[in-house]
Amino acid sequence: PTAVEISTICENRKMNVAHGLAWSFYIGYLKLVLPKLKDSIQIFCDKNKNSILKCKDTWKLHILMPLSCTIPDKLEDEDSNIVFLENLPDIVIDRAGVRTRVYKHSLYAIYDDAKRPHHCVLEYATPLLSLYGMSNESLAEFSREDRLEQAKLFYRTLKDILDNSRDCRNSYRFIMYDDSQAAGDPHFLSKEILKHLQQQEKEEYSLSEGSEVQTDQHEAMSQDPTLMISNEAPRSLLSHF
């Protein structure tokens, strides 16, 4: 097929929608804020003199991706075990003619069954709102089946982009989940988030533990050698034959 025919096929199958949304989300938002996220968290920790976010290796933006693309304005409305604490210091950037445009990130406490809080920076992938809106707009001719497929394609495309982005490395974590399986569980979302937080802690602990082992080995190898000095008088080599 020609380039025009391929473009027509992609347009008819709505294949360009998720691809465009993923690139727009990256270029217009994530590429701008993720490189500055850890500095914002550091300022927050220094200002509040607390250790809510203890491990720097977990200072990431946790991006929620429900397959249904249903996104509430407040996470507490979705799950009462998710509690908003406060916003991190603003990230201010001059952008597209707007001076000192402000970008915000929110810090949440996620409570487990024992009512213990687990903290993270959390937000939804806002382009999913566009997919949801298109599926409810007759002019878009965008079915629920199209929405599901595009949600998956959006995730794959965005993951591929960020996995190859030096600017955003180690500053994000996707939390993609099938919210159709909630089955009336009022704390389905908090449980999904906690699974990822616990997995992340295990991964980071394993990495830090491995680095400690390497450091111990390096220190042992870098110690000054001990000279083995004998008090015996030197003997002639002829005595060995």
UniProtKB/TrEMBL annotation:
It is a multi-pass membrane protein. The keyword Nucleotide-binding applies. Residues 16-201 form the STING ligand-binding domain. Residues 204-225 are annotated as: Disordered. Gene3D superfamilies: 1.20.5.5200, Stimulator of interferon genes protein. It is found in: Cytoplasm, Perinuclear region; Cytoplasmic vesicle, Autophagosome membrane; Endoplasmic reticulum-Golgi intermediate compartment membrane. InterPro entries: STING, STING_C_chordates, STING_C_sf, STING_LBD. The keyword Ion transport does not apply. It comes from the Eukaryota. Keywords: Nucleotide-binding. Its main location: cytoplasm. Belongs to the STING family. This is Stimulator of interferon genes protein. The gene is Tmem173.
